[in-house]
Every structure is written in C-alpha cells, then in structure tokens.
Amino acid sequence: MTNNKTINLEIDGRFFQADEGMTILEVARREGIEIPTLCQHDALEPVGACRLCLVEITHPNWKGWKGLVTSCLYPIEEGLQVTTNNPEIHTARKTLLDLLLARCPEATYIQKCAAEYGITATSFKKREEETTCILCGLCVRVCAAKGCNAIGATGRGITKGIAVPFRQPPPDCIGCASCAHICPTDTIKYTDTEDLRKIWGHKFKMVKCVSCGRPVMPEKQLEFEAAKAGLDAKYLTTCPQCSQDQTLATVQSSFQSKTVPGGSLEVAR
Amino acid sequence: MRIATVQSLKVAAKKARSERESIKTEVLVCAGTGCLANGSLAVVESLERSICSRKLTAELKLGLKTTGCHGFCEKGPLVVIQPKGIFYKGVKPKDVKEIIEKTLISGEVIERLLYRDPNTKERIEEYTEIPFYSRQLRIALRNIGKIDPGSIDDYIAVGGYAGLATALTEMTPEEVIDSITKSGLRGRGGGGFPAGRKWKTCRNAPAETRYVLCNADEGDPGAFMDRSICEGDPHAVIEGMVIGAWAVGANSGSIYVREEYPLAVKHLQLAIDQAREKGFLGDDILGSGFSYDVHIARGGGAFVCGESSALMKSVAGEVGEPRAKYIHSVIRGLHDQPTVLNNVETWANVPWIINEGAEKFATLGTGKSTGTKAFSLVGKVKNTGLVEVPMGITLREIIFEIGGGIIGDRPFKAVQTGGPSGGCLPEDKLDLPVDFDTLTEAGSMMGSGGMIVMDDRTCMVDTARYFLEFLVDESCGKCIPCREGVHQLHCILEDICAGEGQPGDIEKIESLSDVIVSASLCALGKSAPNPILSTLRYFRNEYEAHINDGKCAAGVCRNLFSFEISEEACVGCGLCIKACPVDSILGEKKEVHRINGKTCTRCGACRNICAVDAIKVV
Questions:
Q1: Domain boundary among A69, A85, A101
Q2: A72 vs chain B: nearest CA distance in angstroms?
Q3: What string of H, E and C letters represents the secondary structure of B257-269?
Q4: CB of A71 within 8 A of CB of A25?
Q5: Among all residues of chain B, which has the CA nearest to that of A156?
Q6: Which ipTM score applies to this complex?
Q7: Would you call B475 and A158 a contact, using CB atoms and an 8 Å cutoff?
Q8: Can you tell me the distance from the alpha carbon of B393 to that of B46, in angstroms, rounded to the nearest whole number?
Q9: Could you tell me which of B314, A73, B527, B330 has the C-alpha nearest to residue B322?
Q10: Residue A212 and residue B116: Cα distance in Å, rounded?
Q11: Which of A57, B161, B362, B580 has the fewest CB atoms below 10 angstroms from its CB?
C-alpha cells in the first residue's frame, strides 16, 4: 500500500498511531511490546503458521467482536483494541509449544521457548520419528525470496516435510545456505571446507577471496548473484572481511589527504 | 449453432419442447455414478439394441434417455417410464425384454421390478408416490433424472438459460444482486454465508478484474450432492455462474472439480463446450455485450482445497494451503482480485430464483434459512440416496419418513451432519428443524449436506476417532494447532478405543480442543474438534465407560467387550457358525451355540448375520 493514512489503535491499554498497511506485530515491535514468533522474519512475507503471535482483538465495527488473530498478518484498523497477553493467549501459546515439544523433543531452541512457559517435558505423546524441524517454512520462503525455489514442502499434515525434488540434489540450489542460516532449530546442516561447501547433497566449489584467499561463496552463488545484480562477477570476489578492510583503508587515506574520494571538499577539522 | 439473441433462444426452446412432446413414451435410465457401478450402461445398451432391432422408436414414439442420478442409489439401476412415472428398480439387462413387451408395448406393470415399501410391504407403481420421493422438494436437483445431461437442447427444452436471458436483458446487475439477497440464498457449501451480500461486496470492490468461481471440490466422506448435480445437470451450474458473473462484473472464472469425479469432469466439460458453441459462454452473450467464460480446474483430491483460500491458490497453480482471511476473498481472492466463490448447489439454485422469483424461494424454508437443501442420506438407513428437502424439515422426517427408518429396525443412536467437521446429534434432537443456525446451536452444522445415520451398534468414541483420522490425513500441515493438535487428539482417542484411556483424558481432550478451535488458521482446523466435542456433549457416558470401566457397549472397540450367545434367544440355526471366520462358534443344530472367547476376534460377523439377535455384547 502506498498511502500514508494514519491509524489510531490501542495495544495493551496504550494508544499508538501507525501507517495504514502495517500489521499489529509491526506496530507492537516498534513500540517495544514483546510478542513471541517462530515463523516470522522481517525480510519475508508473514504466513501465520506458528500461531504463537496470537493476540486478542476487539473489533470497533463488528459489534465489538472479540477473538484471537495472528498479529503477524492482521492489518491494523482504526479504533482496534489489542491485548497481547491474557490467560487465554498464554494457554494457547503454552499448548502450541507443548505440541511442538512433542514433535521435536530434541530441538534445543524449542526446549528453551517451552521452558519460558514452564514446560520442561511435553504432556503429549512424543513423535516416533525424530525430527527437529518445526515446519515454520522459513527455509522454503527465504529460498523463494532469493529467487531460487530449490527446496519445498512435501506431503501434508503430520507427514509434511521440507524436502528437495525427487530426493536428489536440487538443481536450482546455489549453495547460499540461507535456509540453514534462517532455520531457528538448526535442522538444515551444511559443512564448509577451504574448497567445498556441502549442502542438500551438493558439493559446491568455493570461490577464493582475491585478496586473502579465504573462501567467499560457492561459484554457483557468485554467478547467480552477479547476474541478479547485473554486475561483473569480479566485484563480488572479495570476502566481507577484506572488503571491509579495503573500505576502511580508502576512508583513512582520504582523511589523511583531507579530501573526500570523488570530490575536492575540505574536511572539517 | 450460436443462439445470438433472446428471441432465438425462445425459438430454440420452442423447437426443443415440441421435439420432446412428439415422444409418447420416454424411458429414462439412471446413469449416475451409483447406477453405473450397478451396471446401468448394460441396461441402456440392451434397451437400445432391442428398440432399434424391433423398430419401436417410430411405432411407439419412444424415447430412450440416459439421465443423471435419480437419487435412490440404493435401488439402482433405476429405470423410469414417463409419462406414467412407472419406477423400476434393480433392473438388469435380462429384464429388458420383459419391460419392452409388457410395459412399453402392452402397457402392463411388472410387479417384481417395482419398489416395495419396507414398512407397509406394498409395491408402489409410481415414482411420485414412493415416500422417498413424495416428501422431497427439488430445486437444485430439479432437472436431474429428467434430462440428458449431455444434451444442451434437453436443458433448453425445460427452460434452461431462460433465467440468464432474463438477467441479461431485463435486469441490471444490481437488480440481480437484490433478487438473490431477497431470496435469502445462503452458500450451500458449508459456510452458509448470504450469497447476495457476498456478490454485492465483490461488485463494490474497486478492481479492473473480478472472478466468479464454482467450488465442486466436494470432499466429505459419504457426500455426493454436488457430484450428482455436475453429472446430472451441468448446465444449471454454468447458467448460475454466468448470471453471477453478470451481477458482479466478472469476465472469467473456473469450476474447481476433483479429478476423482471423472463423470462430473466429463459432463461439465461437455456442457462448457456446448454452452460456448451456443454462445452462452464467451463474448457478447445473447447479444448483451457481456462476456464471460469458464474453465475447468481439476483438483488433486486434497480435502483442504475445498476451503476457499486454498482452492484459489490451487486454481492459481500454487500449493493448496489456506491463508488467513483477514482480507476476504471477495476483496482479494484469485490472483489478488475480488472473487466470488460459491459451490455447485448454490449456483444451481440461481437460475431457478431468477425464473421463479426471489419471493417464491424466500417463502420456502425457515426465516433465516430459505429454500431447500440437498442431502446425501447414508449410513444405517433403509433408503440410502440423494434427497432435497425444504429447510426446516426435521431430522426425524428425513431419516424416518424419506429414509424409511433404520436398517433392521434397530434403535436409532445418532445422526452425523456436516461432514467430517460436523457433529453427531442424538435421538432427542431428532425433532430439530434442519437449518443453518439450529444445527450450529446444537453443536453440529449443516456443512455441505452429508447425513450419516447410526444405529445402536455404533460406538461414538470410535466414530469420533474415525472422523479425526480423516482430518489428520487431510490437514494441510501449515499451522501447528491443526497439524500437531488434531494428531494428538487422534492419539488420545486411539488409546481410549484400544482400552488404554487414562483418567483425565477427557479433560485433556477438552482443553486441547479449545486451543485448536481458537488458534487454528482455517476452518478445517477450527472445526476439526467438532466430532469429539459433539460426541462428548451428547455421549459423554460412552467415553467414561471406555476409560473408567473398560467397556464398549456398542461392541465396536475390540479390546473392550466380548460376545456371548443368549441362551434364551438362540435357536441353533447355525448361521453364525458358518459366518465365523475363525471357527470360534460351536454347537449342534437346534441347540444353543457357544462362542469360544479365547479365539474369538470380535469381528462381529456372527452378530450381523444372526436373525434372532441372540449375539450379545458383554
């Protein structure tokens, strides 16, 4: 949405103003009000899968309708009243974490989240096949956002899983490992050596930093990123550390010569 | 040939009607899925051969027609001879000769092919006098069984596309919406949302493109209302959609139909092709300048794709998972454009409302649930089949008058309405009027019209377990409460049915159900605990008996009962001995038989076959 209409709403008894089009979660986070989430990431479109961000709303129009909604998806409305925590919400979040702990008893992050709600062991039947995947879908979404769509979900219901097509190394994977980095439970693994990155059954050859010789990124990712940005690949072959060092050196030298690169302005003393 | 104007439609209708009237005797053979499975095509072939070889068509002015589902699937293959309305059931190819000679040539009725009322034991000659049909009022199913679904001329002959002509030439889109609003038509797919309001919101949503879709993804176990309409009267659905598209201002749309309904797909596609050829779909429909076309989108059979937002994703080629509907699909639906989605039965009602008037529709049914509703009546009921009744009729009338009561006249226990996420209602709710709001208040729902009747040999805990199993399989797995929560509910029920229930299980079910209801993303999850919650509400004692006493009084949960033969009742006929697959019943002829409890697997074969009800559950 492009308009800047201002919306007035109430969260936990406090009044706020925010731009139309924002979600309840965005406004709450901006104001430092904590709402737990597992499947949300600022860089990605929300989907409302984990349901932990449930809040109670009282709708100004629908005869004061009250109910639980996912704050990551609910667009703010004029006069909306939001409660981010009450016994019903607490019970719902606690039950959701209890259910997740039954699914992945070994996932340390879920253990930690559940412990915050006083759960140390699940009260439900533990899943037979071990997994630490909570099916938040962040990996699939980040891969899609990147433009690769190399991994996806298979099956449905409790047999749903994150997988690669035909259980073969996915042809569209560029080895960026964004999926592994975004995974909240460290379920997706990869290993890096000087020359190789191993992920999803692939062995990707690494590009070495032109300056220090350390691995920068897989060759396939380099080609992908360069093509996407419309740049010559050579601009991406310096590792982040060397890149930083070079920038620092450039800035330092320009200070010493009292000129700003590309201009002739005197730098103030 | 294209029918370009309303005038030429009238001419075509007149011609089609006069062709129909030239036929003196019409033989209608049901070729719905049920009758096809029972071999009705062989009957049709045999009839065709005999009629042709004896050159009866011209001589007797005979017409032979294969139609859609007559509804009385239990008795198929069905043959109806009009205009007398003679109703033959269970017709086999070997009966054809006799039908031709006696009924068609000599005008006699063949007694043994007539339907016999299970209660009065009398043979009934005429279609309309059979209680199964006489209590029905057919609007959505109005043409099914009367016309050949493969012939657009047949549909035009019975007034087809006249509603479209009226809407396009005599009404503004707003007037059409007003008419649908006044009729009180509510969505027949389960939600019961007022169709007029839905259309109005969509029409008023600012957009360049709008879509009108049809949901033919009927997935409830035991339900086949929409399938029968698509198979038996596909043009009614298409006509309804074009009227809807005119009203909301849409120029394209889809019918989302499941691949498991091959005949429905075939007939819908044929009807679309015919409608395009005649100009009822495509550009400048009936010379009005309005354009609308529809395509078939075939679903892969995921139950969740019947949910509106998942359906739209599936139509768009994405994974069929629901999304949160904080912004409704009438505002942002298919391809993010305003979209009206109604189900098959809803669309089939629309031409009737335009033709007969909104007021007439609104007088049928009850205050907030107008018109009629089609139900598939299945389970332990004598007359299984498809019925359409006015809203407000009681469950008792449907089950005991139309349905003829319980098989074997056993005691009624419960009726499950509303599909897998509906609820089970006990005997003291039988006099409730069947409408959207009453069923919801009673803890069940109208759903799309599945109605499963259960007798005293049905265990309600096991029934809840069965529906939960279905929902565990069909949950899309996107959100935690539905994916993990319903699975856990199912685990608890499996334990209870296996005799491993624990004190506190009922409370645990209730508190988990609360969270699933309030926290799930879509209606599938939100209503998934319904089978448990409604059985807990009305049959809590059965849960308690399973958990606390280790007893399943219905004789279903095998770890929780054993069979015994009543000494007083047993006549020593030996039927059970023959039926027992594990040779666990012993006894001489005319002497009381005994069951060896150690080897008995409690399959129930003996109980089902015993004619004197001597097998008891202990």
A1: A85
A2: 10
A3: EECCCHHHHHHHH
A4: yes
A5: B476
A6: 0.90
A7: yes
A8: 41
A9: B314
A10: 94
A11: B362
Distance between CA B1 and CA B33 in Å, rounded? 31
The total of structural domains in chain A comes to 3
**Residue A143's pLDDT band (boundaries 50, 70, 90)?**
very high
Measured CA to CA, the distance from residue B99 to residue B78 in angstroms comes to 13
Closest CA to B546 of B606, B599, B555: B555
How many residues are there in chain B? 618
- Considering all CA atoms of chain B, what is the largest pairwise distance in Å, rounded to the nearest integer? 83
pTM score: 0.92
- Give the span between the Cα atoms of B224 and B239, in whole angstroms: 21
Show Cβ contacts of residue B172 under 8 Å, excluding neighbours closer than 6 positions.
none
Identity of the residue in B302, B326, B519 whose CB atom sits nearest the CB atom of A92: B519
- Please, what sign has the CA dihedral across residues A65, A66, A67, A72? positive
Chain A residues whose CB is inside 8 A of the B480 CB are 49-51, 96, 99-100, 134
| CA quadruple B55, B61, B64, B70: dihedral, nearest 10 | -150
Closest to B593 (Cα-Cα) out of B603, B583, B608, B604:
B583
What does the DSSP assignment read for A199-226?
A: ETTEEEEEEEPTTT--EEEEHHHHHHHH
Tally Cβ neighbours within 10 Å of residue B379: 20
* Residue-wise pLDDT tens digits, A211-241: 999 999 999 999 999 999 999 998 899 999 9
Domains and CATH numbers, chain B: 19-131 (3.40.30.10), 152-363 (3.40.50.11540), 372-455 (3.10.20.600), 460-549 (1.20.1440.230), 562-617 (3.30.70.20)
CA-based nearest residue in chain B for residue A122? B488
Chain A contact for B612, CB < 8 A?
no
Q: Is residue A77 a part of any domain in this protein?
A: yes
In angstroms, rounded to a whole number, what is the distance separating the alpha carbons of residues A95 and A68? Answer: 15
Structure-token pair, residue B468 = 């939960």
Enumerate the residues of chain A whose CB falls inside 8 A of the CB of residue B521: 48-49, 51, 70
Residue A229 lies in a domain: yes
If you measure CA to CA, which chain A residue comes closest to B319?
A: A153
H or E segment and range at residue B179: helix B173-183
> Which stretches of chain B score pLDDT less than 70?
none
According to DSSP, the residues that pair with A153 across neighbouring strands are A162
Choose the closest CB to B518 out of A92, A102, A137. A92
Side chain identity at residue B52, one-letter code: C
Using a CB–CB cutoff of 8 Å, tell me whether B487 touches chain A: yes
In chain B, the residue whose alpha carbon lies closest to the alpha carbon of A21 is B327
| Rounded-to-integer distance, Cα A240 and Cα A215, Å | 10
State the pLDDT confidence band at A48, using cuts at 50, 70 and 90: very high
What is the Cα–Cα distance from B143 to B140, expressed in whole angstroms? 8
Instruction: Write down the number of H helices and E strands in chain A.
Output: 7, 11
- 3 state SS of B319: coil
Q: Are B318 and B310 in contact (CB under 8 A)?
A: no
Q: Which range marks the domain in which residue A165 is found?
A: 138-238
